[in-house]
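Checked the freezer inventory, then went back to the computational side. Two predictions to log before the end of the day. The first one is the construct we discussed on Monday; recording sequence and tokens without edits.
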Amino acid sequence: PLTSFTSEIPQKKMIFFSQWLLEPQLVVVYPIISITSGKANGYLFAELSLKNFFNRMPREHSGKSNLFMVNMKGEVVAHTNLNHVLQSSRVDQFPPVDKVRQGADYALGEYVNLEGKTVLGVVVRVEGLPLMVVSETPLREVFLFVRQMRSRFYLILVMTLILILIGSWYLSRSMTRAIGRLYKAAEKIRDGRLEPVEGDFPDDEIGFFANCFNQMVASLKEDRELREKAEAELRESEKRYRTIADYSYDMECWRDENGKFIHISPSCENVTGYSPQEFYDNYLLMNEIVIEEDRKIFIGHRHEVSNDGVYKPIEFRIRHKDGTIRWLSHICRQVIGPDGENLGNRGSNRDITSRKLAESFLEVEKERLQVTLRSIGDGVITTDNQGSVTLLNPVAEQLTGWKNDAASGRSIDEVFPLCHERTREPLDNPVKVALSENRVVDLSNHTLLLSRNGEEIAIADSAAPIVSQDGRRFGAVLVFRDVRSEKRLQLERLRSEKLEAVGVLAGGIAHDFNNLLMGLQGSIDLLRLSCRKGPEAMEKHFLSAESAINRAVSLARQFLTFAKGGDPVKEKTSLPQLVEESAEFVLHGTQVKLELEVEEGIWDVEVDSGQISQVVNNLVTNARQAMDDCGIIRIRIENCLLNDREAAALNLHAGHYVKVSVADEGPGIDAEIIHKIFEPYFTTKKTGSGLGLATSYSIIDNHEGYFGVSSEPGKGAVFTFYLPSVGSAEVASGVRARGGRALTGADLNGMRILLMDDEQVIRDVVTEMLNILGCEVVSVRDGEELLAYYRKTLDRGESFQVIIMDLSIPGGMGGREAIKKLRELDDKVKVIVSSGYSQDPVMAEFKSFGFDGMVAKPYRIGALLAVLKEIGILPEDQE
């Protein structure tokens, strides 16, 4: 409609209907008049949303008037009396309705309405819609005030006539004019124009009558405005209701108490293929299109709702008009009117065919997944987002000892408890880590699963969150496998490789030992010859013999480390001092320069000093040989605090570590072979055995650390290893070289010591050393002899301050068995375990087996005195 005046500005106010975003709008256009020219040079228009307007329309019009809406066929479509709507009552016989149907914009007339009352009806066409709004006011209410005014008017007229007869012709003339204006105003009301009487009236009965007349006009005008507002709101409400019904996705329907349709939404054609009219014509059509197998469900549900008022959904199948089978989800309930009467049932039908197909597909996929899970050889456990178990496959049931039904709903920590293979400390469940950090988590090395039946199972693999394509997380999946067989095969292979290595190394070791024995034997001969020359000549040969013995001890320990393996004998150690001494020993007498960079405040570590020294020796030796005995070897030692992600990348636990990097300036390692350098017997040297890096890797792994390498051809290689720290910045007392400390003098003041060893030479040598220090020593051969002698000692009321036990006695009771029985006799006595196999688990965890201290063979008296200090037998300042 705006285009009707875009070329010419309207000169008067215009009101019309329009649409905006498919919603009807009431538009009012006002011309803008120029002050100077008096001409219209623009316009202002206002839009009123009929949708919002009808939202505020009351269901019943105020006063005694009646307001309803009629379509162009003359059928009532909205009425305060719902029965007229339900019965589609027709009012086309009413004269004003008929006039509007014939084309008039509005009409006014008297008639007898649907309730049988004589009313004054005003009918207005709704602009842009096939609707009419009808406002009815009882005729006697409309003209009541007029009749009252007419009676009063007659009285005044009679009085006026009397006054005219008695009074002045001037008064007669004035009254005639006033009455004429009133008469003209009454004619305007009759024509539908509610305009007040214009002009001034005297302060008399005529003036009073005119004022009353104007009040009546204002009241009628206000009433008409209210009716128009109600009609507009009714139109908006009707439009909104129709829009909701017509655009509903589901098939909405309303049946009366007899089962006939009162209303059915157009969407029924999308759902069933049949039009609303077909359902109106045959109210049993839905029963007929329901599949025969589901018909009892549908009809039974209708009876339940009608008789019991139940409110529950059902699902059934229908045959669509195109012949296809569709699934519908149906729900309905009774409609109860304001006065409690039953108005029928209100129902909704939704096409769920796609959902049913998806459910069927999911069932097939679920069955396929179940078959897959039952068939794979790994254990699989799934959980929800809270870590509660939802599924175990058969392999997981077998390994965990839990059945799927029993485990379902339980915490993953209860069904899948983990601990460290060596320390037996509980480990964090990978499922909890995967859920909290939303990432894939690999299981740590040395992980044991504690089965419900008490079995300990070595496992491997990982956990990961279950995430949908749209990024939503539904839980986690844990995949694991039993690696006990792999570990046994690996152990057997390692033992086989080590046996082969023994053969490879036997010649070299025999050659080295012969050289050492030759030096030792020569030193002893020289000592014998030097006895005549005095103590000064003998000192040099003593030192030479002592050096040969120390090298023999180091060689024997290195051989045992590789050949026997086992747990390291750890002690708190200052790593920088250990690394520096080991590196300088290898580089002594060469052209290679050592640059050692140590971060301030390096944390202490608990390591086997001999084994870590062997690692440094191997790395520095390889670096020196790679540079042809010239260049610079750079060693850096630094503290590292690894978080969960950093530790997982190195297959470690998060925590404190000391990192050692050894970098050389050699040719580097080719990418094709760098992954093989830790394999036993792999070497690029003509004279190498290929065991140095393999042994070093094994040592670091046994220390719960990480060993790795990085290299670029032509830029050298960097070997790096991490060792767990005790997390303290205290400076350790230094590397304890128990066997290298000379005895400067100690008096044990008659201390009684019981010595057990199967070797007579060891019993004689240790007894003689301790006797020189003032000890009273009793020596026995094995555990049976020790226990028998100790019982007699206790019976006599005597005691020993210290007992030294050999760990292994061939053919007899060794220290491992004897300590248990000894503790039954006396749990106070101090016991030191001694063995030439320092890699035995008892030597590493001697306190766990009941011993108070440990000394590894061969040992010197200084090492024994150090152990006596550790167990509290000697004071710290005793030398």
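The second is the one RB wanted added to the comparison set:
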Amino acid sequence: MTRTRIALIALLALVIGGGFLLGREATLIWVGDRVQARGNVAFEHLTGSLLGGIHVDRLRWQGAALEVAADDVTLAWAPWWLLAGKLAFHRAGAATLDITRTPSPAGHAGIPDELHVPWRLRFDNVAVATLRYTPTQGATQFYGDVGFALDFGSRAWTLQLHRLQTRWGRLEGNGSIATRAPHTAEASLGLLPEGHAPTVPPIAIHATAEGTIDTLAVRVKVTAQSSVAEATLQVLPITPQPVRAIDASLHGFDPHHLGDALPAATLDGRLTATTGPDNVLRGHLAIDNRAPGLLDDGRLPLTSLATDLGAAPERWRFDALRLDFGSAGSLAGSGSIGAHDAAWHLETTALDLNGLHAALRPTRLAGTLTADGPLDGQHIRLTAHDGAMAFALDATANGERIDIARARASSRGGSAEVRGTLAMNPEHAFSGKIALRNFDPAAFGKYPQARLNGALSANGALAPVLQVRAEGTLASSKLFGLPASGRGRWASRGTEDPAIALDVTGQVGATNVKVRGTIADPNDLRARDLDLVLSGKDLAELYTLTGLPFPVTSDYRLSGHLDFRNHTWTLHRFKGQVGNSDLSGDFIVDLRHERPFMKGSLVSDRLDLRDLGGFIGAGGTPGKRAPDRVLAQNDYQIDRLNAADADIQFTGRSIRNENLPLHRMSAHLALDHGQLTLRPLNFNAAGGELSARITMDARRAPIRTVADVQARGLKLNQIAPGVKAATESAGTVDGRTRLAMEGNSVAAMLGSADGNLVLAMNGGSMSDLVLRLANLDIANSLIALARGNRAIPIRCLVADFTAKDGVLHPRTMVLDTEHTVIHGEGQINLRTESLALRLIAEPKDGSLFALRGPIRVDGTLANPGLHPELSGLAAR
């Protein structure tokens, strides 16, 4: 028992003493010195303890061809692994990890039979904020958010890559290499774009290596949806020419599967090459595109690519290089890539830009594209011309930034020129200036014709959020054939806030635009607080600017809050004036469909009916009529009716009108692929109601129109104040009109009308004197004058017209009172607006002296005439 107690006490003392020693920072520093003494490892400012957290300001390791450095390193030691003979850390982290390849020393003997490190090491969970990899030649590559586990075992070195953020997505995988010859190796990798379900990666990369580290058979397969690329390589890693043979192929490969921004294609290709005794890898690459197309259709216009490959250890050459675009032409030349530099030279003699992008005009461009210089400073030059059209580029690209000394496009005496820089770091800082001199986009393709003179300067950064400060001016210019000028300023709110404040004013023709406020997100132009003021001489001018079919109006000024979300523009709570009328409401333009869709809810509290003349006259000045004509002659413009779809609700709460007794209006206008429907179109009028349903089919010329109009309870003396002298009391008029018409103007439509018109009046009375005069009853008229005029009740008033080819014929036209019946006959010609009616009065009582002659109504709608028919009157 005594020995047991002594042993336990000794063990306890050992644990306590060991804990005390391991918990001291001095012990950690002593261990660090021993590690540095046994290997090519160096620590700077090592603090902490083996039982707690360990911190190193900087750690460096130097190998034969590799150098590793880490900053702000934290380590958590796992002492239980000492029982297995390993120095292990269950958690490690670093702010930055730099891996740099260095040239192998002369006479390096290659991979030894057994791989080893000074200590058997294990890292279970390593997190690195920024990884920088620098190859022997070339630019440094940056990766963010790296996580991995590493185990230097006695039989194999293994790597578990949990995540490595690249510009294409997150890379995950694992790999291992045996520590003893023949050093078998294998690896598996997968690439996951951000936001994609990890269970179904759109891009899968799988690679295996078999054999010895001196001679490896490497198989690589890349799949992206249905796209497949495969390669088999014989690799001798430690020889001057590591690739001894390659056989690679593409099978229905679609670049669009790699990213939505890339064009679609169906690529089949083959690369075969072998290395000869002179250590040059020679072969041929050929790629064919089974589904070429235009860039504006989202397709790759390339039909084939071919080149001869010659890869020596110090330089790879690409001879007889040809990029064929089918009927659009080709680029041909050569190129080479060395350890320190690269050079490319391509020429074209008849490149057709229209064959690449349908919006560009047909060309036969001749020119050259060259790039040469060191890998970290390629000088790129482009010159191309076709008659008056010319392009030029002079730029330098390296791993840090792109400098554009000059990029210029010119044609027809106008030009656009760009100068600036773009950094290639994660922030992508930029600065640039654009100068426009009589620049006309229409000279280069199917773009609006313009003459632009102005300047724009901008600077900022693209990441982590867009930061920009810019200002621009436009003067002495033309847009859409109209004089144009403007100025604008843009400025980011802050480095953490994507919002951009803007203040833009401009004038195009007679249209003035002012936009001021904040864009919350430049990616979708969502407005946080964006105010729009729009004014001008005529809303119809907006069709020229936007392609949206606004009506002809008088002077206007509107203001509201502008918003853009999901390809939809919305003008919220706008208000203003159009002519003498006020107007307010919400207006939406949805651009998500094949054609723009306009939706609005509009209200006018004080509507001047003359301001609707643009809807009625369609194409000309509101209210304008041809001389001696009542019906509007201006044509509806069919192209505008087919330019967009619409759903507009309109309410006129109070109507100002000098001619017609209209008091309130409500309408629902729908426009669908050139077919316009007003259903309903309602008015409170003359003490009653007018309701209409009108359909206009403008899908072909001339426009086909169907109108169905109903009148209920209209007061006759309010409809036609001129009859007040003839009517002692007003009756109520009911009626209905159904017309089918063809024509592009109101006059043409009514001039072709087929259908019927029925009016009937109930109640009311009229002047006895007027009735006697209608019969030319001189005797009874004198009696009426002598005893005083009296009211004669109206028993019946009916007018029933048929319409044929724009001519109205009365089937029934009768006014019945106690002593007189008046019949009407003749016609009203709406094509010529001429009147040819006869009013025939038939008395029910006798008269001593009555000429009984019909009354003729003639002339035009604008200037009607009323007089007795004189034929036979003298005899009577």
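For RB: The longest strand covers residues 87-101. The radius of gyration is 45 Å. Let me know if you want it refolded.
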